[in-house]
Amino acid sequence: MLADNWNFRETGKLGTMLRLMLLLSVSLTVGSSPPPLDEYEPLPVPMTLQVPPPGMSGHHYYGDEEQGRASSRSKRDITSDIFDAAGSLGVGGSNILAVLLPFDGQITCVPSIKETKTRIPFNSGKFRALVEGTPPKMKDALLAQDFSNVTADDMRRLNITVIEYLPPKIIAKLNSTLLFPVVERLLQANKPIAMGRVMTAMGDKLDSDALLDKLQDAGGFKDSTEEAANVLLHTALNKISDGKRGLDVMMINRLGRERLLDLVPEEQLMKVRDSDAAKILLQRVYSSQATASPEHKDVDDQALIYKLVQTSYGKAEDWTQNTIKSLGGAVLGQLPASFLTTFNPEAVKNSMAKLSQTDFGSPLQAKAIADVFMKSVSGNISTTEVGEMGNLAAFINPESVADRPTVLHRIISSCENLNLPAPLKAVSEILKQKLQGGEKAVSDLDWSDMREMSGSFLKNSPPAVLGRAIELTALDPKQLGEIAGGSGGKGSFINPFFQGVISQVSAYAVKLFRASSTGGQGFRGLPAAFLGALGIRGIRDMSQRDMTDDLPAKLRDNPDALDDAQKAMLIKRLRDQDLLNTTLPILPPEIRGLLPRKGDGIPQPQPRRNNNDILDGLPSDAELRLAYGYGKKFTAADLERDPRLVGTLTPKQVMDMDIEEIPAVLAAVRESKDGPQQQTLAELSKRFAEYIRLKSEDFDSPDKKLLKYISAAEVSKLPATVLAYFIDSRQTAKLPPDVRKEIMIAMGELSTKDHAAIPAKTREEIILQGLAAIDKLTGGASKKLDVTELAAIGGSVGDLSPSRIESLTPVAAEQALEIIKGAADDDDDRLKQRACLNKEQRAAWRTKIIQLYGDPSKWDPSTVTSLCCVIGLLNENDMVAIHPEALATCRCASDSNPPSHLRELKKALDANCRHSLGGDASSAALKKTMDKVKSEIAFDLDDLESQIVPLRRRRRRNSESDNEDIKLTCFKVRVAGNAAHFSKEQLESLDPIEIKDCLYELGSEPLPHDHARILWAKLVKSKGRDGGVLQPDDIRAGGAVLGGIRLSDVNGLNLGDWDIVYPFGKTVGLSKNVLEKIASNLEEKQSKPLSQFDTNDLVVTRNILCGFSPERLSEIQIKAFRDALPVLSSLDPGCEQTRLAKLAGLTLRPEIFGPPASWGPADVRGTGILLVGLSSRDIESIPPEAFLGLSPSVAESLPSSLLEVLSPEQVEHIPQFSAQAMTSAQRGSLSSEAQEKLDSLVAGPVVSLAGSLNQNGFITTPILSVLLTAIFAHRILL
To answer: Where would one find the signal peptide in this protein (predicted)?
Structure first.
């Protein structure tokens, strides 16, 4: 009773809080599961809060004339607080509901009491207060939710604030006549949040035609800056196919006139039901005969093309020659293989002239057409018909034409044209015929035999055959052009499958093209793939004409034909001859990335200028890019004008942006394929939350609840990397379905790098919510995932759960596998990366692959080639079951080395996958498994091996243990791709005479030192008949084999020849003693001390610098060191610490980066591995934000002595991928606070579980009591 008589003002806030705590005695009964909404009844003992009667003086009360509104306002504020806080615990309207009982002085809180017509939903407290001031007719209609007597004019006369806060349940009861004025008013007032709520709640009452008409009346469609209009347009376009009329010809014409067709979502275009409309879309957007430029951006979207083709022409088995003829190659080339396999064989046979010219997106599609064509000829194909197939002949099974060499040659050449390895069966059958069934050995082949062989055949043949051709000097320029992958002097992109072949023949090619016997072709005739064999001397001797006219064009196709030392030398030569400014724009990023940032004659990029010549194509973490605009203030207009700035944004730059700029900045981030670091994304999420709060006037809700104010239209312009910070398993589920779907679409559009920046659990939640939203929008859960859903999922198919993988239709699974195996290059940067899959996902994909393509033991060579990048998802037993000859030529492009300027990005993605799944599940681990299986296979070539090397007849393997007894040949090494999985005994069995033919493969992967020593000894022995002197061509491709050099062999090296020096300057695993010996001999052989080494000398010497004493290193010319730093920054981390410290000290000179206290991210990046050599004091002085430039390679090399002094602020700025590359031992060296920062950084925007819930998802009684007490205490204390 005392509490009932207390006056708020008289007792003060403390007394009021005590009174409230007395009143908050709650007794709730919590069921094991929530009953249906209709079954909820008020609890027997509801919680009541006494509200003083009207007229009572106090802080919360007003005069008599306002007592009604005051009572409503009081109840509104308290109720809103209760349920905002309850919602933050994951308990929303489905579990608890506040019912305002008018004029009885009470607020009754009960679990989800069924509403009556006189009760307003709890989240409409503000709306209830606003209703009090409306005209009586509208007030009664709104409170009763009965609009039978309301007219459109009545709705137009409502105050805009009332319209803005119309609750969804009231909107749902308005008919189309009453909705029109609501839409009009919201458009006029530009209220996007309210417009989004109306669009969601109105259902199908207003179709797309009506919405487009309304938008047109309000001012049109083009370049609308009004947010509400954009919400309306987005809704209209997302409903374009859902009405009774659908997307017909008239609507397509209308969208075309208004230039809106390119904005229509693919999902809606896929729903086209009218065949004429579908044909118009195909002809207008995708047909190769279309004269107008494509209006739809995603012209290569297979899912959309497939659906449109189905609607236009029906089932494939009913197609005729005319049907195929009517389609453009751009359409045919995107149709899925499972659809192409159902083509009518006769139609395919009669259309082969067109089909053979079609550029199919994947080998599986081309194979499908080839298989259907073979059915049309009943497997008995004539030579004429083989010619008609064009490059599709690559997919003829060589078993069926084993006795027809002409057809076998055509198979091989077709594979070459499609950038595929040729079937081993085709090669072996031709070679057997050349060797007369065993009567001749390879060593018996003469000059004329070799001239009869095409370059395509030679590059696919065993190394001994190509070695014989080189020995006989029988290769002509045409054959060399074919081996290089291009013709004559034009370069073609090096096929990663044939790097070993290129290495084997490149020295011969350079000599041939330099010789006068080639008709004076010289450098201009040299295929680009062989440029690396020019060596150091070749770059130094290159003419000015070659550097400016021919070389840039060659390097655009094959930039990594040169190694880093050669690239740096080329830049230095262009710079010395004042050719750098004119040549730089046409050089590829792999070379531009090695441009020194400081020094005379170096173009200095400036923001807001056109710097495509320097920065275009570089990743955002490149030194030049990081320095591009560091410390400047950027606006959204700057980012839109130059998207390259997006990836370099720092948290401070985001903090300095005006808040109204944030939506446009986020739109620029979404358009970028090279997004910012996680720290910047986190800051963007904070600014975005700030923007939403200002816009919604909600300053109390937690961040995870703020997406409720964002419409689907707005989400469609936001990056998923920022949206991820707002994902919550309970709050996200409450968002409208169209919003959840747009979030999933946003994630599916991310580049590989940005996708990996979102934690796997958060990605899984987004997929879960997105698919649930699609199910709701389509009227129920679908049992299958088809191409329509796949289009919305996009690049996120790697996040599908095992059950969802199982539900993929054959067509959808086929298209999804292109992303899983890394064939899709969403960034157009030539980086291929397999999806990072956990154990359960890999098992599900294995099952799906076998369902689609059958038992692996029955796969033919072309199937294996087409599926090579997903064979790693099979288990080892599956791989062993694949026919050895088919598996032997399986080489996955995703496993090849990336472009050199993307090496750190590749390493970052691998580190991210290892962190997420563990080292045994990463993409690199899958490659190792495949390499191991290939190194163990014993394929039967009808005794071909014995003909290649007659004195070492292979024994047929009868058991697994026999593998150790089989002598190793270069043929086996080339099949395996490297020597990593061969035993010491097998390596010892390799004939020294052969080693030169597969030296690249033997040294392409790191080797144990004792293995390297075995191979080095064989390499030296192979030169025995030449006096034992190794020439540059003998060791250029040695790689890890050179790490086996003995100390006694160093004196035999001709270190006066820089072409001998530079292979040893690479990271090849040389011991400290060998490095010191080479360094000591180098000065003597070069007849000059280290202090006289110029830039070219330093970039060639590279890791050999680690063999000089610290005192000698201090003598290096600072100018030469500065220009060589882009190469020296990637020295071997194993370089002795005192040497690294001396080299690192040089970077502190004012001519280079200056004192560490002034460094930025570009300086940390430019210092590279030399950062490890800095002192603890220098590391401590580096500004925290500068650590945004720390690369994964440097992060994983940081010693404990430096990690111990890193501050939490510095650790907080380490890039996420670099942090993930650090080992657990390294993390243990950090301070406890720094470890917490690192763990948070590594985790990223993890999806959160809201609140304290019991196992059934209900709020518990003690938690509710504490919650309500805190809410009311907080209200009074304010």
So the answer is: 1-31
